[in-house]
Design a protein that fits this description.
Layout: H1 21-28, E1 32-36, E2 39-42, H2 44-63, E3 67-68, E4 74-76, H3 85-88, E5 94-97, E6 103-106, H4 111-119, E7 130-139, E8 154-164, H5 167-187, E9 192-198, E10 205-212, E11 218-223, E12 229-231, E13 250-265, H6 267-272, E14 276-277, E15 283-284, E16 287-294, H7 295-306, E17 325-329, H8 334-343, E18 349-352, H9 358-368, E19 372-376, H10 378-382, E20 386-390, E21 395-399, H11 404-408
Parallel strand pairs: 3-7, 17-18, 17-19
Antiparallel strand pairs: 1-2, 4-6, 5-6, 7-8, 8-16, 9-10, 10-13, 11-12, 11-13, 13-16, 14-15, 19-20, 20-21
Helix pairs in contact: 1-7, 2-5, 2-7
The structure holds one RNA strand.
Length: 410
RNA sequence: CGGGGUGUAGCGCAGCCUGGUAGCGCGCAUCGUUCGGGACGAUGAGGCCCGCGGUUCAAAUCCGCGCACCCCGACCA
């Protein structure tokens, strides 16, 4: 992508209604634009990061047997009739009507629909286990949207639902999902903690994936030695208490909930009447789990952790960067053009082909935040080639033009 | 939902108290000089002053009612 064509504009000043580091940065750098409280448009740069996040999630969900499908944003009131959640989730549901007065909600989550779909698919223990997921925009009527992309009224979420023949099989899958979630967040460059939490309107308990950071809204109590961690909602501790599982000490931190998984038992299946015949010929309800992961929230979280506010500089983790490589030519020259032609097909490349001052190009490049920067200038050519900067290490080397691919592939 | 604050050019703001030609910075356009860390000069374009109603010869400015946004709470997969 030539930067002169890119649909974006960086800003020197942040809109005064930006309420968080992630919103300030993402707007300033031209990744998102705010439509209203809790609703952000993804501009090309932001969407590139989102797509990479989504693809990592897809890969990992597929790796444990998940199958992608896409359910509906429009949910007729009737699908809630057996679960009673039309009333229970009253405060969160955006309700609308068709031209005939039929009542609908904009989907905040999809247990009702997925179980209804499963009724048509699962009739024997031979049909189990099954796991389906979708990546979709969800709508929740937040009383107070805030923290930029971290708490929106409209946000992209991955939600997976699994169906099992018995608790034992469910538990195996549930534990597997924890591992794969940690792997996913690791690929985003995020170190998260698994935290015990309440189940809300879903189940008795749940597990949250919390990114410990002062910017988070949640309060987490965790052990400094072992894996013990609980959400404030259920924690009976205070800072300095002894860990119940080892001789460690309980610490407190804020956290951003980037994922949340719930054991649903057979509750929804029973309510909606989804059953199958076991290998002993008996009717049984499948044991279910649901597995949420906030896609747009992850975008915001990566920024909260990685953005250097003092230097106005971002370095995206390699796997989610909007572009792999940023070519910056400081003087209009054919060498940079041909380098772009060469690398373009092999990498995701952003090429700053504009005629601007070096300072302005560098300042904007710091905002875009590509992990690798290639500088083509009179100075670099005199020194023998292209300057290659690994932004995460801040290391710079001059590489002869013909060796560029070799270096980049390392 | 309760308390507080703010709405003026694409963005950041001043002007409002004390009514009288709508301003500054960034960004944008043209020209020239610059050219390895958001350069400089000159010229120029760009406005439903949040909306509706009221007071007044005259309203961005005063009064009333809405709406939106932000902050602090309450709530929250």
């Amino acid at each position: 992508m030539k930067q002169s064509h890119l649909f974006y504009k960086t800003r020197k000043e942040v809109p005064s209604d930006a309420d968080s580091i992630n919103a300030s940065y993402l707007i300033r750098a031209g990744f998102v634009e705010k439509q209203m409280a809790g609703a952000y448009a993804l501009l090309p740069l932001g969407l590139r990061v989102i797509k990479r996040i989504q693809n990592i999630v897809r890969q990992e969900m597929d790796s444990i047997g998940g199958q992608e499908l896409l359910m509906n944003v429009l949910q007729p009131k009737e699908i809630y009739s057996e679960t009673g959640r039309w009333e229970k989730m009253e405060e969160i549901l955006y309700k609308i009507q068709t031209q005939n007065g039929k009542e609908l909600a904009l989907g905040p989550t999809h247990e009702e629909q997925v179980v209804t779909l499963a009724k048509g698919v699962i009739s024997s223990y031979r049909d189990l286990p099954k796991a389906v997921y979708q990546i979709q925009t969800k709508f929740r009527k937040e009383a107070r949207a805030k923290s930029g992309l971290l708490r929106g009224r409209e946000f992209i979420m991955k939600d997976m639902y699994s169906f099992h023949d018995g608790e034992e099989d469910f538990e195996k899958f549930y534990e597997l999902s924890k591992k794969v979630y940690l792997k996913i967040f690791g690929r985003f460059g995020l170190e998260v903690k698994i935290v015990e939490a309440s189940g809300g309107v879903f189940s008795e308990f749940s597990h949250e994936f919390q990114l410990l950071t002062p910017q988070g809204e949640d309060e987490i109590y965790y052990c400094n030695k072992c894996d013990f961690a609980q959400n404030k909602e259920i924690a009976q501790f205070k800072a300095g208490d002894k860990c119940p599982n080892c001789d460690g000490e309980i610490l407190v931190s804020n956290g951003i909930e980037v994922g949340n998984i719930f054991p649903l038992s057979t509750t929804f299946a029973e309510q909606i009447g989804c059953k199958y015949i076991t290998n002993e010929g008996k009717e049984q309800y499948p044991v279910m789990g649901c597995y949420g992961l906030g896609i747009t929230r992850c975008l915001g979280s990566v920024v909260e952790i990685m953005y250097d506010n003092a230097k106005n500089r971002m370095v995206w983790p390699k796997e989610v960067a909007p572009f792999d490589i940023h070519i910056i030519s400081l003087n209009k020259n054919d060498i940079a053009d041909s380098l772009y032609e060469r690398l373009g097909p092999k990498f995701e490349v952003l090429y700053d082909d504009r005629e601007l001052s070096a300072g302005q190009k560098f300042a904007e490049a710091d905002l875009v935040g590509c992990p690798i920067r290639l500088i083509v200038s009179g100075k670099s050519l005199e020194a023998g080639g292209i300057e290659v900067i690994d932004m995460s290490k801040n290391s710079s080397t001059i590489v002869p033009i013909e060796n560029i691919e070799k270096i980049l592939n390392e």
